[in-house]
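User: For documentation purposes, I need each entry recorded in a consistent format: the amino acid sequence on its own, followed directly by the corresponding structure tokens. There are two entries in this batch. Please keep commentary to a minimum and don't merge the entries.

Assistant: Recorded as requested. Entry 1:
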Amino acid sequence: MPEAVLVTRPEPGAEETGRHLAALGWEPVLAPALHLAPRPLAPPAGVQALLLTSRAAARAVRPGALPPSLPVLAVGEATAAEARHSGFVKAEAAAGDAAALAQLAAARLNPEAGPLLLAVGEGYGLEVALALRQRGFRVQRRVAYAAAPAPTLPDRARKALTDGRVVAALFFSPRSAHCAISLFHEAGLAETAASVMALALSPRVAAALQAAPTPLAWRAVQVADRPDQDSLLQLLGPRLAKR
């Protein structure tokens, strides 16, 4: 039975996911579809709270430029934990997606208490900003990092796919899914997807996977019950249980 699992999320998250896969008995094959680079961020003065849309944003924004006591609202628990690890004292997690983050901010914060700092990746966060502005909040959206498509599949990933050892691939965002699909096509490996189960963090990620152009067609597309890594890995379970 194939035992390798392709991990398409960017670093440093890919390495962490790989450790979880190894603990479950799977062979992780890291193939980040995006490369992240932090951007200088000059926080505006007088913000009442910091909103974080991803762990990458949490890593890019450090206390110092902002007071550690500033309230932080994060898209999910992993992002909140990253913010706490960075030194922010108060970090509360939403239920895992942009709509949940906007709802949490609307419930916890007052539009009259000052602007919100929304730290995002380049091209991200527009949905959260719009939802909160419609509720009367002033939102200062700032780019904390940029994501660029990976130029090629790593050699180890190419070999694992060519040898038919990849049973599943993990996808964490629509953009990384689109980029990974392009990498499959450019490597001449689109047809290998027929033996790969695509595991999506959310319905939006699944939609991106299902829209892959021919000849790429996944063996199946499954969606995590909740938009977090633990739920995604539950779709796999321990490898020995699959025998």
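Entry 2:
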Amino acid sequence: MLAVWRFSGGPYGKLRPSAEASAAYEAFQVQPDLTYYISGSDVHPNALMGIDASWTLASDLWKKRDLTPEGLKELVRGMQAKALERLAPLQGFDILDHRDRQIGTWFSLPGPHVSIRIREENRVEISTPPLNTYHMDE
């Protein structure tokens, strides 16, 4: 109930599937203008996202990561191994603000159910995906 209240009201953003975001994560390309965060395990995160450096993530639920291409490769490979257990592909998304402007990228299993609430002064709250992301069918 708290999550529903916390994210009620205000302008919302959304995720939009993106072949470019998928390709960048799968090629382990660290974008210098993005600040990276993970949710879930340090070995196989439930989601990986990069937020434009001009934005601030207003959440302590995400773990900030300073990534190199090798570090991104380890995270993506861990996610791919976990997704393979479900026979499900990972997908990239653009994170859009309430005006459909791109403010970041996202990488996870398809169909994440998250809330993207736009706050004042380039601040965004993004909920984490469910902790059982890789086992939701079980």
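Summary note for entry 2:
Residues 15-128 form one domain.
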